[in-house]
Amino acid sequence: MSDVLKEITPLSEKDFFYIVERHKTEFKYPVHQHKEFELNFIEGGAGVRRIVGDSVETIGEYDLVLVGGQDLEHAWEQGECQAKDIREITIQFPRDVFSPVQLAKNQFAAIGRMLQQAEHGLAFPMSTIVKVYHILDDLPLQKDRFQQVLQFMHLLNELACSEGARVLASTSFAHAGQSTESRRILKVKQYIDEHSTEALKLADLAGMVGMSPSAFSRFFKLRTGRTLSDYLIDIKLGNAARMLVDTTRNIAEIGYECGFNNLSNFNRIFKAKRGVTPREFRAMYKKNKVIV
Asked: Cys-Cys link to 43, which of 22, 87, 134, 180 (CB 3.0-4.6 A)?
């Protein structure tokens, strides 16, 4: 498979961030990746298909996503959108715009957590979009650069303090860490990552952290927001999606290697969780890839 386009963004070393507002009728830019954080807002884009890692979703009238993973592939495709005027505001900012010292301060803690979550891509709910719409609307028009930075900081804080944001790409696809989680959860997740193709038993995982199976199930759901079985499937699908993108191996072989016992089961679960079949997912990435 060819390499994903590595975008060289317009952001210069002297810029705190780069912002551009566009009005378009279609999306043409291929699946790409870059090292900078990117906040992308779309208005009037109902039917557009958003790709962030192995997350494939059709968006509504409004979409607001923060992509922060280095080399996390992403793109917006035309999909079923028929709109004649799609508004897009893109803000890109460097990974070092906040130092570790700043993010360690109480006042920046929420932003730090959000930036870490954005390593997987982060989609914000409509309630948050409504809350920050006036900032997004005014930010591209602000002529005073210092005031623009203050507005940008205000925007990030509002996003970080809002509720309901969803992580998009799976951990195994994005290759992003979970360093803020409890040691027991991290220990189990690391073991799962290393043995995802094996038949993992709840009792064995619970025993690793000195808990009963029922107590561990409740603990895992409380700390991660997902059941253990859902997480196991997510890891397997993320590994499979990464292989579909990065290799030319046949789909049945990928499914078997990632822990699915037969092709029909792999196809069914992949379609249910990702919205497309493994073949469609691979074709979608392949048509959007370019040689660099």
From this structure: 87
Query: Considering the entire predicted model, what is its pTM?
Result: 0.80
As a three-state string, the secondary structure of 259-291 is CCCCHHHHHHHHHHHHCCCHHHHHHHHHHHCCC
The Cα 154–Cα 135 span in angstroms is 8
CA–CA gap between residue 12 and residue 209 (Å, rounded): 47
3-state secondary structure (DSSP) of residue 117: helix
Task: Identify the bridge partners of residue 33 per DSSP, sorted by sequence position.
Answer: 6
Cβ(219)–Cβ(188) below 8 Å:
no
Domain parsing of the chain, residue ranges: 5-169, 176-288
| Fold exhibited by the domain 5-169 | Jelly Rolls (2.60.120)
How do residues 1-30 score in pLDDT, each as one tens digit?
445 677 777 888 888 999 999 999 999 888
- Under CATH, what is the fold of the domain 176-288? Arc Repressor Mutant, subunit A (1.10.10)
Rounded-to-integer distance, Cα 284 and Cα 289, Å: 9
Q: pLDDT tens, 63-82?
A: 999 998 677 889 999 989 99
- Residue 277 CA, chain-centre distance (Å), reads 19
Q: How far apart are CA 51 and CA 58, in angstroms?
A: 9
Rounded Cα distance between 281 and 257, Å, is 18
